[in-house]
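Readers outside the structure-tokenisation community will struggle with the description of the input data as it stands. What matters is that the chain and its backbone geometry are given together, residue for residue. For illustration, here is how one protein appears when written out as sequence plus structure tokens:

…
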Amino acid sequence: MKNYFGAIFTLLYVLSYKLIGPWSNEIDLYICGFLLLIIGIPHGAGDHLIAQKIAKRENLTFHLKPFIVYYLGIMVAYAALWFITPMVGFIIFIAISVFHFGDMEDIQPVDSTNTWINVVKTICLGSGILSLILFSHWSEVSKITTAMQVNLPKNIPPFSLLFSLLLLSFGFQKKNFHPFLNTFFALVIGFFLPLIPAFICYFSCCHAITSFEGMRSHLEMKTLELYKKLIPFSLGALLLGIIYINLISKHLEIYPVFIFLSLLTLPHFLLMHKLIKRPN
């Protein structure tokens, strides 16, 4: 049952949404904010532990303060890029998300004898995951990207969802049968939800949990032990997010949340890939 937590949670969300609701967007935001707080953000709050593990593996010293400065520096530079040219910032966010989502479906090290095959499958899988979420909620996506000052077509071809499903099938690997099915069902069921809960159900209940398990395994720590270590940094990330969102907009808006997630994703992706996918 735990292998299909994302699919089961998304199904329960849809059933509640259809039977009790549909409720207001505010309730969706509260639920999604809760999922981000307890699962989504913590899965990226252990990056200092990952960096420490990598340093130990490579016989280097690790100091937390320089790491935090370096980490925040990457975020600030990327935020500046978003400010100067939103389209480039958006393209980088999509590219990182595609590779990261596809990469973390498989928490096993890369098979060095099939590097290009692995890369192609990763890109296909990540593209299928992200595009299925976006294409199935395109009108909502268009409103958010317009607020980001990123101009995308208002309409997409009717076969777009079929294209996403083909990409997913190309990215399938038999060894990842259960994670793939969990993600696939969560994405398909999420079609019946608005964009934000559909994305967060996948992000927090599929991607984040799988990434957390990969991190826990490679750090050789118990789940509760690791989670306790992540709480201070999760709260720090939450505080940064609140400050950033308030600086961008005085009203509650969705697009600053996505931009802030992109700022967190860039350094997180680099560390997770190096620890889990390239352990040697």
Observations:
- The chain has a mean pLDDT of 86.
- The chain is about 75% helix and 0% strand.
- The chain has one domain: 2-277.
- Residues 91 and 150 are 10 Å apart (CA to CA).
